[in-house]
Amino acid sequence: MTPEEFLAETNVPRETFERLLEMDRVLIDWSERHNLVARSTIKDRWHRHYLDSAQLVPLLPESAKTLVDLGSGAGFPGLVLAAMLEPEGVQVTLIESTQKKCAFLTEAGAAMGIKNLQVIPERIESARLGFKPDIVTARALARLDKLLGYSAGLAGKKTKYYFLKGQDVEGELTEAAKYWHMNVIKHPSRTDPRAAILEIGNLARVR
Ligand SMILES: C[S@@+](CC[C@H](N)C(=O)[O-])C[C@H]1O[C@@H](n2cnc3c(N)ncnc32)[C@H](O)[C@@H]1O
């Protein structure tokens, strides 16, 4: 997928597209020196990473004002969502424990001219938000049970969770159901027929 094909697929406003192109310029520059995303995925990054992230936007509640992305890595999905949701006034927080990746996220966010962005360079387990986010997102961070443990520590009763999940989503749901009550909607992925997006609400621990 080319950037122009991404634009046609998502129909993002021109200004948002320019910001994503700027993110990509910084990503490619850093990728020559650092391993930010798997090298095998760089050629098809507009499909594998940008579209994979952008597909979350139509699923998110319009009333949301705060979003926290866990283990953001090179900014997927968190930095893409920050660019796409800034016009809606959504504040985006990225939590990432690797300092080098945080430096990338901060530099890319500044180059993109994004103002609704906060990068927390800490482990999720020790991060203190000071607010209960409306939305928590994550991709390729941990299996669902562990993700929910991370999330529950940060979130409030009304928080909704959107996790991009791979092939073993059913196994992860079965495992997590031993420890968590939750309402789950499983959305098909637009980028990978074997993958799914889990939308989770009403999360509570099994007692
Ligand atoms: C496999 S990468 C995925 C990155 C990105 N979400 C993506 O899908 O491209 C997982 C990222 O989570 C970060 N990470 C892992 N455990 C973490 C923790 N406990 N707290 C914060 N970040 C963590 C790692 O440093 C890494 O950048």
TrEMBL record:
Main location: cytoplasm
Binding-site residues, S-adenosyl-L-methionine: 71, 76, 96-98, 124-125, 139
Keywords: Cytoplasm, Methyltransferase, rRNA processing, S-adenosyl-L-methionine, Transferase
Reaction(s) this enzyme catalyzes, per UniProt: guanosine(527) in 16S rRNA + S-adenosyl-L-methionine = N(7)-methylguanosine(527) in 16S rRNA + S-adenosyl-L-homocysteine
Top-level lineage group: Bacteria
Enzyme's top EC category: transferase
Entry's Gene Ontology cellular component terms: cytosol
Function: Specifically methylates the N7 position of guanine in position 527 of 16S rRNA.
Gene it is expressed from: rsmG
Entry EC number(s): 2.1.1.170
Subcellular location: Cytoplasm
A family per Pfam: GidB
Protein name: Ribosomal RNA small subunit methyltransferase G
Gene Ontology molecular function, alphabetical: rRNA (guanine-N7-)-methyltransferase activity
InterPro entries from the UniProt entry: rRNA_ssu_MeTfrase_G, SAM-dependent_MTases_sf
Family, similarity comment: Belongs to the methyltransferase superfamily. RNA methyltransferase RsmG family.
